[in-house]
Design a protein that fits this description.
alpha/beta, Lambda Exonuclease, Chain A, three-stranded mixed β-sheet, 8 helices, 37% helix
């Protein structure tokens, strides 16, 4: 048995178990492929995980440290000033928990009985006392990322909208406008020289979380079903499994 993957997960981590929660990433998995979602959350057979991007985690940590320094002082971060954003890092008694992996913002959705969770990267506040969801992203490309115009980035947008929905359910006044702090590692250097330089851009996104409620109802129906649903039309995992089964047959 691999130390990284166990296909026979303890039932307490499946739907109905004491440890199970509906995370933001699970919501996105359902939208991508109901079949993979069902196999994971109902039957305990999750996709084989990829390896973590440690440099992304390091950037995430350092950005939080940097914005926290201005949060303590009650001042704007230079990036907010550069983009003329009338906001500052928000202090909140629950912020550390809301940012903690496997913790996050929580809300019990009574119509479905689902405990919905999601861990944010940062929270700002503007002059209208609206809370602003902020997400950190890191990549390396030939050109700096300055807009979310690719289809695969739609998941980033849904991610922010789930966070906005969760904060609203927790009684906060939330701005429809959120921001991505997007760090792009520069690949045009002649030598490594023990450092990587980044372009850092602030990308505005106006969210619409009205889809969340109806999606939770669909997720509940899926989890209560005794029938494994069909695959998502663009699911690589299901396509691979089908191709392999055809080959072995």
């Amino acid at each position: 048995m691999s130390e990284y993957y166990n296909p026979n997960r303890d039932a307490s981590w499946n739907y109905g178990g004491k440890n199970w929660k509906l995370s933001r990433s699970k919501i996105d998995l359902f939208l991508e492929c109901p079949r993979c979602f069902y196999l994971d959350n109902k039957l305990g057979v999750k996709r084989v995980p990829g390896f973590p991007f440690s440099i992304n985690s390091a950037i995430d940590y350092l950005l939080k440290q940097e914005f926290d320094a201005y949060r303590v002082k009650g001042e704007q971060h230079p990036l907010q000033k550069e983009y003329s954003i009338d906001a500052r890092p928000m202090s909140h008694v629950e912020l550390d928990e809301w940012r903690r992996n496997f913790g996050g913002i929580r809300y019990f959705h009574e119509p479905t009985g689902l405990l919905v969770t999601g861990a944010i990267d940062d929270l700002w506040i503007n002059k209208n006392n609206e809370h602003i969801v902020v997400d950190y992203k890191a990549t390396a490309k030939d050109e700096a990322v300055k807009e979310l115009d690719k289809e695969w980035q739609d998941g980033y947008k849904r991610q922010m909208e789930v966070y906005q929905w969760l904060l609203r359910q927790n009684g906060l006044k939330v701005s429809d406008t959120g921001y991505f702090v997007y760090c792009t590692g520069k690949m045009d250097r002649q030598a490594f020289d023990k450092r990587i330089d980044f372009d850092v851009n602030l990308i505005e996104y106006v969210g619409d979380d009205r889809w969340v409620e109806k999606t939770l109802l669909k997720i509940k129906d899926c989890l209560e079903s005794q029938t494994i649903p069909v695959s998502g039309k663009n699911c690589d995992w299901c396509a691979y499994t089908k191709a392999r089964n055809n080959f072995e047959a």
